[in-house]
Amino acid sequence: MPTAPIEFPPPVDSEKEFVGAPTDPEDERIEVGVAIVGGGPAGLACAIRLTQLLAEDEALLESLGEVPVALVEKGKGPGSHLLSGAMMNPSAMKKLFPDLPEEEWPTYGTVPKDAVYLLPNSKRAIPLKPTPPPFRNHGNHVTSVAQLGRWLAQQAEDAGVYILGETAAAKLLVDDGRVVGVRSGDKGRGREGQELSNFEPGADLMAKATVLAEGTQGHLTGAAIRHFGLGSEDPQQWELGVKEIWEVEQPLDRVIHTMGWPLRFAAKYREFGGSFLYPMGEDKVSMGFVVGLDYRDARFSVHDALQELKSHPLVAKIIEGGKRVGWGAKTIPSGGYWAMPDKLWAPGMVIAGDGAGMVNIPKLKGVHLAMHAGMFAAESIFERLKAGSIDDLSNYTEKVKGSEIETDIRRSRNMRQPFAKGFFVGGAVVNAMEVSGGRFPGGRWATHDDATVDVFIGKERDYPKPDGKKTFDKLSSVFTTGNATRDDAPNHIRVQDKVPLEVALMWQNMCPAQVYEVPEEELEAAQQNGNGKLDGKHEVKLHITPSNCVQCGAITAKGGRLTPPEGGDGPNYQQT
Hints:
D-Amino Acid Oxidase, Chain A, domain 2; FAD/NAD(P)-binding domain; seven-stranded mixed sheet; about 25% helix; alpha+beta; globular; about 20% strand
């Protein structure tokens, strides 16, 4: 019988653990005007736009108290947990900063040229001409989203936004059917949850309005969607991207995308994705590999596929003589239009950005959509605050529906799903959709939960051995992120205690940070059960190292669950 990760759900009670009423005495609660959860493009754009609007209405600004706008950021600082391609469409920056010349933006400038290649094998590269429309990036800005986040945070703070850094939002506060804020997570607990000498309890952060802009696999966003029944009938799907930054000897004069090798074309593997190489100024290149998380072979590893890609002549000549200076990993929502929540708000709350699936996957574009959503959230909340009631935020949905967020994602509404039929069939169908503007083949192509796809143990993959110069192992990659999670911090990862080897090996190989490991004795037992071959049904107990985790979110997509770590834990990205 096939084995799917969804059959082994994590020990999580979302309703009891992550949603609840305020618990602090009223005189100990922290009161703010608007609480924004997440210091990414959506949350920071929301904060900046809201302060712009409040600056024009002094009476409303004063009515919001001493802290009119507060932003909760779980990373070491804004930008610490941000990772993206990122080829940024300029429309949102132009709207948010209409008087700031593009030359002064915190980017590497606009794209000079595009190139797309099909890699049929480890040696050949076939250029696709003309460049397929989704890969045309003329006018877009090459961006480090981590650096963009830090720059936006400075603009927000200069405008009066109070940023609570190293603070995890652990619980959504709901009172009488209305979101009234969030509760921050405890700090200073030991591995078993005990209070250490530096223990600090969390606090209730009360707000007139709450914006959930947590990014991909948002913890409270998922809890809110379930609690208020906001979700679509089509589940969200996810892709995992692993990225490296290289200092190079020769500048790259174009943006490059590839598809094909080292992924396998056969439909039984369901390996869908590709790579990107972007110039970051004269001396750096941003390189990444992105793969859909509905693949089936438990031996497949996105991290190691990126290492393998670097042996291809097309890529090898770009990084020849260079040095890796950055690494990171993150999931990307890829379900598209049909998988977006049916409703983007609940009384007192809105959802913006990646948490709401606002990504155009064929174009790999989401930064500008997140920023537009954040600005719409600010404008909607401002309108309702002026009207005297924040309960009905349907005006936010109206703004999103009439914007480029809606038109952009709707056009590609069925372009991810066909690749379940394999690379060549999927590519042919998607080409027809692209040419017809998404109208043919039409209809509603259903999405599926990635964890419902059955997995199997394929042949041992011949990934390159790490040499520390061009190819790297997972642990050295995690070290590059500046990850400073305590070894004795509580385990924020939830999985079943024992799962079939098929699932365990998939988690082990999927994770780019070496968090999960099948002990050698478990592999030996599975081999004995299978008379020399691995018995995939043999149940094993994984060894978990949560301090390695870079919070990419892949485990949540594939049957487990990330819960909020202690504030400040995780990576401290600088250039991703």
